[in-house]
Amino acid sequence: MMLLIPFILVAYVLLYAFALTVPLDIAQQPLLDGLSTEELSPAPRLDTWLKKEEAVAVDRLLANIAPGGRNAQDATPGTVVASPSREHPDYYFQWVRDAAITMSSLVDLYADDPASPLAAHLLEILDAYTSLQHTLQRTVNPSGTFSDLSGLGEPKFHTDGSAFTGSWGRPQRDGPALRAIALMQYLHAYNASHPTLWSSEEGVEWFKTLYEPSLPAQSIIKADLEYISHNWRESGFDLWEEVRGLHFFTAMVQLRALREGAELAAAFGDVGASSWYRSQAEDMEVFLEEFWDLKKGHIVETLRSKRSGLDCGILLGSLHGSPLEGSHQNVRRDGHIFLPHSDEILVTLLALTRDQRDRFPINFAPRDGLLVHTLEAVTMPLQGVGIGRYPEDAYNGYGSSTPDAGNPWFLCTTSAAEVLYRTATHIQESGRLHVRERGAPFWEALLSATDTELLPSPTPPDRTYYPADQLFNTTLARLKEVGGSFLDVVRRHAGDEGSLSEQFDRVTGYETGARDLTWSYGALLQALLAQDITSVLSGQAQLTHFAAHISKYPELAVSFNIGNRTSMDSACIETRTSGS
């Protein structure tokens, strides 16, 4: 192995040198930063860039949404365009999944300051989205119809709201879950900013579109919850639209939708439905345990797949399948499994990061004027690298040309940062770091860059550290540092003006694939929100734009918040019906 290392390093240096000779037509940050003193200090530069990039991300995300978006002027109001790219590749469609994830980001922005001028525009978008989803649910499509809810598995539509009838991977069963989650978040946030709505006649009509108990289901959330609760055992295509089977990402968002849907149904007096959704969620928790592969030592994205199982979808499933710690998302967290801070997610992140670090030549490129991949780097501790979808990915942004042609994705790279920030927040909120045997490899890799020894050798199976322990504070610092290093990867490969495409090239590092991908901007904003929360909890920052209305000490037991009436237990939630 020692004899091979010099040859490996020489090969990567030659490959990198070749990459610099590739002609490119787009203006973008160079791969090799200058050697000035300022350039060699990446942390201040990252902080400065992130402050500017947050505004860029909000602007470019909104540009892809109708009404008002400059890239979506011919789209039906409420449409989220996946990308303004109409050819090579054509992403000018509205995906149910992408749109719902984007709307969740907009709800966070709205909850930040409901009285702001931006909030007024966000309400216009959210209301238009709600109206459009009501229509799309009823649009006959290749997946089926609304009468039996089979049509809810349709993954994408044209931007004018008509059905896409071409060949595609269908059904995709994550869309209804993500839409239900987004609209439940909207219901919570809007109701919190309009405390008299719940008991008003105006509120009766407003809530009716989102949720009302009648069967067959007529309201948007109710229809989605019925679809999920009766179809979660059925196979479908994964979030990358390539493999049919049972998938971790899909199951995680379905579980969250059912958990939160049970609380919502109880609030509307839909007691039978609440019990049904809750029972299905309990069954799903048992089912989800099957995704942990003891032999591989990590979660697998798809059951009984020929692939390795490592997949960015696992990180995304954990993130979107659980409410954000410390945020306005006042929902109960007990019962959620595979949270971002769980041992299983963290060791899966470690395995994926190590695979991607060694897979993409750009992850071996010089950084800030220094060639970091030396002998020490071959066995380096955990740090930020470009993360792609999965090891076997052959899609390069335009087509599937050759095996292993895939590239790092911006949204996957930022998802790694968000996992680390949310883990830091959990440790800060709980006041303890619990190290178990299953998660020990992650913590050892995280701390190997420090002088702090994780545990005496041999590692005991279970140990807890508290704020008085040096290791507790060192771990928190490292989580934030490594989270920042993933965001710094995004900074290095973003366009000069802050643009984020779908991917960045595995060799050159330049943007590639669909330009201005909406999900890329939304994923970055979610990571920045998670960063804001952990910074505020540690007292390192004042509340920023995103976190202005986030409680420093959230009531984690809250299950549902109706205006100014907070229920601590589902059994005593005040209820209403559409006729009350």
From TrEMBL:
One of its GO terms (cellular component) is fungal-type vacuole. It is an enzyme of class 3 (hydrolase). PROSITE patterns: GLUCOAMYLASE. It holds the Pfam family Glyco_hydro_15. InterPro entries: 6-hairpin_glycosidase_sf, 6hp_glycosidase-like_sf, GH15-like, Glucoamylase, Glucoamylase_active_site. Residues 57-528 form the GH15-like domain. Its EC number is 3.2.1.3. Belongs to the glycosyl hydrolase 15 family. It comes from the Eukaryota. The keyword tRNA-binding does not apply. It catalyses: Hydrolysis of terminal (1->4)-linked alpha-D-glucose residues successively from non-reducing ends of the chains with release of beta-D-glucose. Keywords: Carbohydrate metabolism, Glycosidase, Hydrolase, Polysaccharide degradation. GO terms for biological process: polysaccharide catabolic process. GO terms for molecular function: glucan 1,4-alpha-glucosidase activity. The keyword Hydrolase applies. This is glucan 1,4-alpha-glucosidase.
